[in-house]
Specification:
Number of helices of chain A: 6
CATH topology of the largest domain in chain B: Uridine Diphospho-n-acetylenolpyruvylglucosamine Reductase, domain 3
CATH architecture of the largest domain in chain B: 2-Layer Sandwich
CATH superfamily of chain A: Beta-grasp domain
Number of strands of chain A: 5
Strand order of the largest sheet of chain B: 4-5-8-6-7
CATH architecture of chain A: Roll
Oligomer: heterodimer
Number of helices of chain B: 10
Strand content of chain B: 15-25%
Radius of gyration of chain A: 16 Å
Helix content of chain B: 25-40%
Structural class of chain B: alpha+beta
Largest sheet of chain B: 5 strands, antiparallel
Number of domains of chain B: 3
CATH topology of chain A: Ubiquitin-like (UB roll)
Order of helices and strands of chain A: EEHEEEHHHHH
Largest sheet of chain A: 5 strands, mixed
CATH class of chain A: Alpha Beta
Structural class of chain A: alpha+beta
Distance between the termini of chain B: 63 Å
Amino acid sequence: MPGNLIKLRFRLNEVETTLQCPPGTRLIDILRGHFGLEGAKEGCGVGECGSCLVLKDGQAVNACLIPAFTVADAEIVTVEGIRSLRSFAELRKGLPEEVFGGCGFCASGFLVALAGLFVGNPEAGEPEIREALSGVLCGCGNYPRVVDKALRRLSRRRKYGRKRD
Amino acid sequence: MAANETRVFRPKSLGGLLRLYARNPDAMLYAGGTEIIPHHQRGSGRHLALPEKVIYLGAVPDLARISRSQRFLDIGACLSVSRILSMGRNVLPPVLFASLSGIGTPSIRNLVTLGGNLCASQSRGDIRSALSVIDAQIELRSAAGTRWVGVAQLAPGVEGVDLSPGEVLTRVRVPLEEWDVHHFRKVPLEGLGSHGSLCFAAVAHFPKGALDALRLCFSAPSLPLFRSRTLESRLKSARLPIPAKQAEALVAELRVSLGPGREADRQSGYVRATAVRLARAFLAELNARSLEIR
């Protein structure tokens, strides 16, 4: 490839990763194109729909707004990581189990938004959940169902404690 | 400029950043990128069309520090809005907390930085209006030295202070004064063909039922940063509650001083009418609050 490339080293779903790419490559394209992680989807491409959310250093961010050069030394977790990694086992217990109804396009955005919330605030309640989900657009109108499932999961966890999880 | 010709610098210290920027004053400073990236998307391609030189500020620890004394809160310019909000309502002045909470979605607030919001766009006045009413100062540093200016002076088209070549906004100093009323409202203007909002920030202090200090600030694309010092001084020492007749006279005066606006008539007319309504609502809230306290 002509021109300058940058060499990136970062953690992707708990795996040390290196990659060479042009500095202006977007994170969403790195994930989908280089690593085949297609859970994060490109919707609007300008950070408004939330379907490309990933965790960067524990915070939910829009992968369509992240150029490659800002990823160096960062810890990236995609929706695939949230579903399968051991370090997220505890967190996963607060997330709804099945994919939400409707077309499913926004499901990964919802899951990552909730994961980002629970990483920073494990005791989050309904207002915080609603606020966290406000950045994910769902054309099928699944918001009440997602909030309800997240709350039910959380309340069950709080009621029975960790053993029953 | 093609994306693959971009050179990215990642300074690790403030001194390194200032020296680097002095040598490359044409470089683009990159913090959160939420203003920059949407404007550099190249069609449906997979690379951003970035300029030839980019300086990434995210690796400079000095730009991401918060310190607090009895009188001030110093906030690093590269701190994200969500990180600043995490300090909580009890630490941040409520008018600033409200303005920060109204920015974007939670994931966008994880990216937007304080300095980026103040520098990057002329159309977003959320933080600027809130910082202006509490008389916040910004620190501008370059290899040649340091200077402090008021937030209002950064606003384009007002008393405009442009950043000198090689100068970087490094931190914002927020005074921690006691105010009896904090007020912030944001009205989107998207329906009027504008990518921005009308923001209104106000604070007031009224010991013993008389206004000791009142500050009002509006910000919109057609009204970069408007603070009516005349109105503020007119209301100083006024007894509360302000009689309805006097309040209407003040609002009428504000309507005149807001002027016809600089953009298309439809938008500037709407902005002016809405600004007047917001000011009227604030005066009503001020009266109600003063009665509550009494």
